Amino acid sequence: MPPEKQAAYWSYIRVKELLSLQGGLDDKESELTNDEVLFITVHQVFELWFKLVLREMIGLRDLFKGPVNEQELAGAVHGCQRITTILRRCVDHFEVMETLSTREYLAFRDKLTGASGFQSAQMRQLEILLGLEDDERISLGAGESYMQALREADGSASDALKRVQTQLDDQPSIKDVINDWLYRTPIDGSGPDDEGDEAAVSRFLATYAEAYGKEVDIACGISLARTAVEFDSSLVKQRYESDKVALDDWLASGDGPDGAKRRRIRAAILFIISYRELPLLAWPRELIDSIIEMEQHFLVFRQRHARMVERIIGRRTGTGGSAGVDYLDQTAREYRVFKDLWTVRTFQVRADATPELQKDEFYNFRNQ
Ligand code: HEM
Fold first, then answer.
1. Which of 65, 141, 196, 359 gets the most CB atoms within 10 Å of its CB?
2. Vertex 262, ends 260 and 266: CA angle to 5°?
3. Per-domain boundaries in the chain
4. Could you tell me which CATH class the domain 24-198+276-343 is placed in?
5. Residue 230: its pLDDT value, please?
6. Residue of 302, 305, 317 to mutate, ligand 1, most atoms within 8 A of C-beta
């Protein structure tokens, strides 16, 4: 059936409406300097990218709400890669903002007091959807919560606050569904509902810890033999010993209400990345790598934003009342959602040091 309306670029892209949105607080674009219109436009471009990232993330999260088959993992990887590509472009856009000199920005900055990037509802939605928890958040200023910052000046709920609240109610997060998926991953052929699964997981972890211990001993030996400077060898040994303890501590996460689940999730990550060349682990390992890449780009976004801010306003207090660059650097350091996916890299061993599996044929394609 032919479409009812003839399409035209302007009616489809809504160019007229789009170009009428850069008028600032008084909606009078003709009275604004080029610097201010640039400032507004760059923020709007970011918000549009955030919108696309949000859509991709919801798709990614929904894909994992139930059991996922192998082919669907390719779609999840594609989604992560698209998000990463968008974030990479976002980071470039800070360069456009940096064409604004300190004085050019100061010329209109005062009228923004009270407004701040931390009122970007979409940015908060992205963090919540990823799985950043409320108790992991850094205080914005004088103990103010991020939700408080989304209120109107008279304390009433803004549209931004309502959006963020809706996002908070829309569980699970991507971290939750990925953890559930990891939890279900067969480890050396054994699934969580199989009889003897706990023993199979423990066996895998024990052989892995032994292999890792040997690798640490080898690295320690090389370090002691090759260091040219005088040093206290007992200190070096201590450091390597603490590497071994770190793996034990990480795996001995079986205490507490979610302990057993957490331990199996960590074992699954270790398993997937250690046996990454097995055919049935090809997509799982790609997914893990693409999630890490995606989170890395979030971190780069935060760091790049902080450097741009430092270049333009130095270390002064932010218009939102935070410690400015110090606050932003703290978020770049501390906001990590997929912590286990990062931690496991510390414990990886060389391919030929990986312990043998009992059931590696389980991970071949079924018709092989
Ligand atoms: C001249 C340009 C900019 C300056 C000087 C600046 C400065 C700041 C400062 C100082 C903060 C800390 C909160 C505060 O006290 O206000 C902040 C937060 C933030 N800014 Fe910017 N910013 C600029 C451009 C941008 C752009 C283009 C974006 C893109 C969307 C952006 C997004 C954000 C976000 C999302 C936060 C909240 C960070 C968090 O709470 O984790 N900013 N900005």
1. 141
2. 120
3. 24-198+276-343
4. mainly alpha
5. 63
6. 305
